[in-house]
Write a structure and sequence with these properties.
By secondary structure, the chain is an alpha/beta fold. The chain has an eight-stranded parallel beta barrel, surrounded by ten helices. Strands 7-6-9 form a three-stranded mixed sheet, with no helix packed on it. α3 crosses α4 and α7 crosses α8. It catalyses: beta-D-fructose 1,6-bisphosphate = D-glyceraldehyde 3-phosphate + dihydroxyacetone phosphate.
Length: about 350
């Protein structure tokens, strides 16, 4: 199917919140990982989100070029073409963008999409993330307000982060401490600055102990009840319908989370969960197995010629994509999106 229209993407997110499920947002950095994500969503019968980080966008432009905008545009163009052959709805997203990279990443991409929309075309991406976790909340929300206006004009959904995600991703590292837990006051301030949906569509990554990176279950102290308290605080502050979930929430740093923690987070309004570390491993593990099992074919050992069928990148690439696709299916099952494509 074609890449989701802005209207279809909003429908996907609304349906997820109403139906208490969420979409895996799979980070990719190549055509191979993109194809693996597409296959995984198709195998699961799930709509989904595929995203690039600043580092992923640089890599996609060529590892010696490191041009985030070029890599993002190339990724979006390729994805738009190959996604047509898969029977699910896919939205494209750009991941964590800190303040010092806004002018070299999100703002230029927003301008490109705004120009496309003026010509009657679809935006390049369906959503962009502004990561203001490293700046004071007031500044974070001021920049978010400016970006929200630009996103509305370009028919794009904004994602913001209120709170801090621990661990390391793309060179950004944060300590693991109490700052990892957003407060009800943070949620109310966000709603006062950006509304709760009535001014323009946005998603909110409230933090509840989230940590980027590789952690065994139990080492990350998640408190999904933080999300419930945030939703309830906004409902009470603005007199909204009791039990409603005003925020479309995002779950970052999910590696090592328990099934119960994921389930609770989705129940409290999470509609998007980023998946990166686990799918990176799922892609690379079959490659390692291929190299070990075909050692004398991959390498020209003792002056021999090796086995072209073993070192052809497609040989290990297919195994890698299959491994990652299977992990995407697993993520869809955990988040309850499997079998629920809107078609």
């Amino acid at each position: 199917m074609p890449i989701a229209t802005p209207e279809k993407y909003a429908e996907m997110l609304d349906a997820a919140k109403a139906g208490a499920y969420a979409f895996p947002a799979i980070n990719v950095s190549s055509s191979q990982t993109l194809n693996a994500a597409l296959q995984g969503f198709a195998d699961a019968g799930s709509d989904g989100i595929i995203q690039v980080s600043t580092g992923g966008a640089e890599y996609l432009s060529g590892p010696t070029r490191k041009d985030m905008v070029t890599g993002s545009v190339a990724f979006a163009a390729y994805a738009a073409e190959v996604a047509k052959n898969y029977p699910v709805n896919i939205a494209l997203h750009t991941d964590h963008c800190p303040k010092d990279k806004l002018d070299g990443f999100v703002r230029p991409l927003l301008d490109l999409s705004a120009e496309r929309v003026k010509r009657g075309e679809a935006p390049l991406f369906q959503s962009h993330m502004w990561d203001g976790s490293a700046v004071p909340l007031e500044e974070n929300l001021t920049i978010a307000g400016e970006l929200l206006e630009k996103c509305i004009a370009a028919k794009i959904i904004l994602e913001i982060e209120v709170g801090v995600v621990g661990g390391e991703e793309d060179g950004v590292e944060n300590e693991i401490n109490e700052k990892l837990y957003s407060t009800p006051e943070d949620a109310i301030a966000t709603a006062k600055a950006l509304g709760y949906g009535e001014r323009g569509y946005y998603m909110t990554a409230l933090t509840f102990g989230n940590v980027h990176g590789v952690y065994k279950p139990g080492n990350v102290k998640l408190r999904p009840e933080v999300l419930k308290a945030a939703q309830e605080a906004v409902v009470g502050e603005f007199g909204l319908e009791a039990g409603s979930k005003p925020f479309h929430l995002v779950f970052h740093g999910g590696s090592g989370s328990t099934a119960q923690e994921i389930s609770d987070a989705v129940d409290y309004g999470v509609v998007k969960m980023n998946v990166d570390t686990d799918t990176q491993y799922a892609f690379t593990r079959p490659v390692a197995a291929h190299m070990f099992n075909n050692y004398d074919g991959v390498l020209k050992v003792d002056g021999e010629v090796g086995n072209k069928k073993a070192y052809d990148p497609r040989a290990w690439g297919k195994a890698a994509e299959a491994g990652m696709a299977a992990r995407v299916v697993e993520a869809c099952e955990h988040l309850r999106s499997a079998g629920r494509s809107l078609g």
